[in-house]
Amino acid sequence: EIGEDKRPKVIDEMNDPFARQKLITWWDQEMIENATIGVFGVVAIGNEFVHNAALLGFKKMVFFDLDTIELSNLSRTTLFRKEDEGRKKAEVAAERARELCLAEDPRIDWFCGDVMYEIGSGVFRRFDIILGCLDNDATRFYIDKQCTRFKKPWINAGISELSAGLQLF
Fold first, then answer.
1. Contact 142, 166 (CB under 8 A)
2. What is the pLDDT of residues 54-85, one digit of tens each?
């Protein structure tokens, strides 16, 4: 007799955008769709993460960024366009992520402001994972402190000239 976990998966490849992912034995699409992600910094690495997360099926995300889009940002992003110049980075990233999101009923929100002074630390409780893609060490330290306080996993990623760094906490 075949055990429940040994039965072959039945995947509807014609109607399920995540069919190929679900064929991976260790993949958990339901976990991805239920996870809530906080992304701090949505240019360069953050922009790529948002893009890929939406395509993978993450549908509950909140984006944080203090700045507006400048022409120089466009060479390092896939979500921003020339006509977005002057708009809030987090707002545009949320709009584009909603457009790209392949999961049903995306709940993607954004905040434009200084996370150290304009949001309460309790906001970190609502996330299952946090991604820091910042060019600001003070905010990185603040996020680390909050993630430690609330026992939340976070990824710190950054680029400097031709090198990149990634740390898991």
1. no
2. 999 999 999 999 999 999 999 999 999 999 99
